[in-house]
Structures are given as C-alpha cells and as structure tokens.
Specification:
The chain is α/β, with parallel strands linked by helices. It has a single domain, classed as Hypothetical Protein Ychn, Chain: A (3-Layer(aba) Sandwich), CATH 3.40.1260.10. It is built from four helices and five strands, in the order E-H-E-H-E-H-E-H-E. A five-stranded parallel sheet has the order 4-3-2-1-5. The chain is globular and about 35 Å long.
C-alpha cells in the first residue's frame, strides 16, 4: 500500500450523516491504496455491534451497513475504543467483521509516524 490513513468517528445514530460520511471517506481511502483505519470512540463504538447499523441510511448515500461491509471486505481495519465500549455495556462477542477492541495505545501506534487523520 502507498500509505496510511485514519478516520476517527465519534457518532452513530446520534448523527447518521457523520457516521455515513466517515465510512464513505474510509472506503475512498482504501480505494486510493491507503492502509485505512476507522477508529470508533464515544457513541461511535455502537457501530461495532452486529446489527446496530442495519437500519441506518442517509439520503444520497449507500446504506451504512453496505459501506461498513465493503470496508471490511476490502481489508479495512476498525479499532474500537475499549473503555468507550465497556462504558456502554456492549457485547464484545458480537462485533462486525474487521472490528477489534483496543486501547488508545494502538491508535497512537498507528498515527505515530505522521499518518493523516480526519474526524467525524
């Protein structure tokens, strides 16, 4: 791959527009030959749970579930903030494909070399 790119997402059903656009950008980064990471934190961690995004669809975009599936199938990585996930009492055994629950150090490791990042 040519480089790395990170999309940080703090929203889910509280702002479906931002959640959708984040995965549109993440897929575009993968399509541009970038090793791409989506980092889910705060409310965004809910997207890591299987079935949560199934009914999320912003006008003008593909359904979020489809965007997330395409991202995972193209070898995109989803890091899920461990404390945020645990705070919400979510099920660690029911994650979407490509999702891994991690501590903040994993995000720092990915970004440490100057990886560009956008936040939604």
């Amino acid at each position: 791959m040519a480089g790395q790119f990170c999309v940080s997402l703090t929203h889910a059903k509280d702002n479906t527009d931002k959640a959708t656009v984040a995965f549109v950008i993440a897929n575009a980064a993968l399509g541009s030959d970038q090793e791409t990471l989506v980092f889910l934190s705060t409310e965004g961690v809910r997207l890591a749970v299987n079935g949560y995004a199934d009914d999320m669809h912003e006008d003008g975009f593909a359904p979020l579930k489809e965007l997330m599936t395409n991202f995972a199938e193209a070898d995109g990585t989803i890091y899920v903030c461990s404390p945020c996930f645990k705070k919400r009492g979510l099920d660690e055994n029911n994650l979407v494909p490509g999702a891994r629950i991690v501590g903040g150090a994993k995000l720092v490791e990915f970004l440490a070399g100057g990886t560009p990042s956008v936040s939604y």
